[in-house]
Records
---
Amino acid sequence: MNIATTVLVLLAVNYQAHAQDGLAGINEANAQVRSYFDAGTQLMYAIGALLGLIGAVKVYQKWNAGDPDTGKVAAAWFGSCVFLVVVATVIKSFFGV
């Protein structure tokens, strides 16, 4: 009976030691994932700016060619740019980065 009690005590201490490491690991993973949000939002801003420039050139070409659907193309390109900027801003504000 004494050996069984000793084994149970050793298992309980071992289990408790691993539980503390798990909590520290979760907190570290949380901090690491949150650190990626700043770089991700900056990347989304950069992609939005690039799409804005490409869209401006496409709309300018259509406008100079006299295409009647210039308004649709402008709305599509610039709408996608605004969407990317809004999503990046919402992600930043939602996660409190």
---
Amino acid sequence: MVYEANARIRDPVYGCAGAICQLQKQVNELKAQLARAHAELAGARSQHAHLVALLCMEMAAATPPPAAADALYVVDSAGAAMQTSPIGWVVDEPLWT
């Protein structure tokens, strides 16, 4: 009640309602600003992904194809390279050991 009384002294017409309305307007403006920032961030992420893809394509086109290999290597989730069967795979042979 004290706050309402002081608000009525500052703004006899609207009192607390005027302050609340201003704060709600400010919150809505900040929400819109946050939405714009999210959209800008999404655009930047998309542009970054596109540029990385282009860079990968450029590097793949610039490097000569590797020499014929006699074995295929697979990297497991721990980062260790494992040699699989030779390129001419046998159907019943496991993919890695």
---
Amino acid sequence: MQARAQLRKKLREARRGLTNQQHTDAAKRIASRLRTLPFLDNSTTIAGYLVNDGEVNLTYFIESIWQSLHDKKFALPVLHPVCKGHLLFLSYTQHSQLVKNKYNIEEPVLSCKNVVPVRQCDVILMPLVGFDVNGNRLGMGGGYYDRTLSFTQRAPDSHSFSGSKAPKLVGIAHDIQEVDALPVAPWDVPLDAIVTPSRTLQLTKP
């Protein structure tokens, strides 16, 4: 656990050290790469996040979803008001009102009518603190995604759970967040793909 905490601190400092231009370039390149993912193009409901702490900014991609002629819905995670340590997903549009949560991260105002059940998300874009070529991921340490997405745990090369199709989980990161190997915890939820400004790592069958 200490090794993960030290690595998390180092990688967070590295991504915060990128220049504004580097952040903008990364956001544009990743938006372009995401638009080429076949399973994303065929998805109806896509969940993502709003930038915080030097993460890759998804604004360019989100705006392209809003402008798409296809009927696509975008959703954002909010801290679950009842299940502590879990996330709840709400629809996100140009007109959504945002508030800051206890971590100072913007999220949509809670409204029951805007709830998007996580099992209805076709793709979930997740911010990474670190990753390796084997698809192991390092998050912020709160375990929110791991708890919320524990139902997606599956056998290798299987995309099903309880007879249904699991959402595709795509990690988003800067290239400098790659490490040779990450210490893995048993609760870590595996990713289907990782997208950086320079490449796309496809970790499971498309």
---
Amino acid sequence: MMNPDESLQVFVPLKVRKQNGRPKIMPPSTYLPSEDRTQDPHILRAIGRAWGWRRRMEAGEFNTVTDLAKAVGLAERHVSRQLRLAYLAPGVLKRLVYKREVPAVTLLKLTDVAALPWHEQPERVFD
């Protein structure tokens, strides 16, 4: 345990503003975003949703994609396309989810890549 003489105080210049009635932390005006791209949270969310839907279908909760789409209140075409993400190659999933690597494709293109054989997916997603 540190005594007060050994403590370290860190000052982070952030501003809190309300946006849509919710507080939002604003970076300092001198902040320059890094050149590195970061993982798109929509991709992670879509993969998680697809796996949830896949588990529910495999458990027999829904017999068809149409039944699933009705239950979640989305268009059947959208659910069918997003469900493909649950069938991405294990190596691609590991790089996207655990290593948080940034794909070279959009979410829409990622759903198309999921229909390809597993050995072709990494080069299409990351190159």
